[in-house]
């Protein structure tokens, strides 16, 4: 499955969340990662995130059954999709 992860966490935890997501997904831009994960990898990632994030943090995981989605960029594309897909 294809996932996009968007996070807004306290500055004290930003580096830990970024480092964790980097081990599973491709960095897209500030606070955004995307890539292909198996169900097991997604479950593992969610469990590891739960150990880091606190109640006032937010991590959104958008799940797509495949790579079928449209990307519309407004402004500068910081990480071209060609590098990811």
Automatic annotation (TrEMBL):
Acyltransferase as UniProt keyword: no
InterPro entries: CRISPR_associated_Cas2 (IPR021127), Virulence_VapD/CRISPR_Cas2 (IPR019199)
Residues holding Mg(2+): 8
Known EC number: 3.1.-.-
Signal peptide interval: none
Any one GO molecular-function label of the UniProt entry: metal ion binding
Keywords associated with the record: Antiviral defense, Endonuclease, Hydrolase, Magnesium, Metal-binding, Nuclease
UniProt xrefs under Gene3D superfamilies: 3.30.70.240
Required co-factors: Mg(2+)
GO biological process: defense response to virus; maintenance of CRISPR repeat elements
Membership in a protein family: Belongs to the CRISPR-associated endoribonuclease Cas2 protein family.
Free-text function comment from the UniProt entry: CRISPR (clustered regularly interspaced short palindromic repeat), is an adaptive immune system that provides protection against mobile genetic elements (viruses, transposable elements and conjugative plasmids). CRISPR clusters contain sequences complementary to antecedent mobile elements and target invading nucleic acids. CRISPR clusters are transcribed and processed into CRISPR RNA (crRNA). Functions as a ssRNA-specific endoribonuclease. Involved in the integration of spacer DNA into the CRISPR cassette.
Alphabetical list of HAMAP family matching this protein: Cas2
Subunit composition and interactions: Homodimer, forms a heterotetramer with a Cas1 homodimer.
Name this protein carries in UniProt: CRISPR-associated endoribonuclease Cas2
Native source organism of the sequence: Pyrococcus horikoshii
Native organism taxonomy: Archaea, Methanobacteriati, Methanobacteriota, Thermococci, Thermococcales
Gene that encodes it: cas2
């Amino acid at each position: 499955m294809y996932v996009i992860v968007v996070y807004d966490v306290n500055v004290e935890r930003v580096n830990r969340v970024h480092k964790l997501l980097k081990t599973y997904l491709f960095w897209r831009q500030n606070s955004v990662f995307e890539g292909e994960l198996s169900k097991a990898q997604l479950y593992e990632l969610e469990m590891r995130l739960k150990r880091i994030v606190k109640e006032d943090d937010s991590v959104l995981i958008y799940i797509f059954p495949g790579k079928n989605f449209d990307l519309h960029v407004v402004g500068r594309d910081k990480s071209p999709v060609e590098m990811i897909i």
